[in-house]
């Protein structure tokens, strides 16, 4: 890959550090004193992503062309449990590696040259699950850990990087 990482075509293991093309922005998080449905025993971690519109760089689909950034800031939610904190830690790594967002065509609106989610699902609905992007969802933490692993982000790989 362009980033110097290699992926085995058979087992999909990533060697090296995979990085993406997410445009510049900000990721913040804080605790809120409310519980998520299905996680009534803990508070909630709110993640706030903010990416402004801008001009595409050489790594993007249309270098030099402007891109839009609809729906920012985007708020996402995790339970403040041991597993939720583990997911947060790995999402911070995914953010640093520019893997959470990309520039492309929105599957929701069909708009091109816009900031889109990039293969790591997030829960953007608080207190309900009307859209399927909320709680309760007993499989979400397992699913997002699998998606992070597919991007080469595991607790083991993060620890190895620090050594």
Automatic annotation (TrEMBL):
Q: An example Gene Ontology cellular component term from the record?
A: cytoplasm
What is the source species? Micrurus surinamensis (Surinam coral snake)
Q: Which family does it belong to?
A: Belongs to the Deltex family.
- E.C. number: 2.3.2.27
Any GO MF annotation of the entry: zinc ion binding
Q: Name one Pfam family in it.
A: DTC
Record domain Deltex C-terminal: where: 19-153
Q: Please provide the Gene Ontology terms (biological process) for this protein.
A: Notch signaling pathway; protein ubiquitination
- Swiss-Prot/TrEMBL keywords: Cytoplasm, Metal-binding, Transferase, Zinc, Zinc-finger
User: This protein is called what?
Assistant: E3 ubiquitin-protein ligase
Kindly state which reaction or reactions the protein catalyses: S-ubiquitinyl-[E2 ubiquitin-conjugating enzyme]-L-cysteine + [acceptor protein]-L-lysine = [E2 ubiquitin-conjugating enzyme]-L-cysteine + N(6)-ubiquitinyl-[acceptor protein]-L-lysine
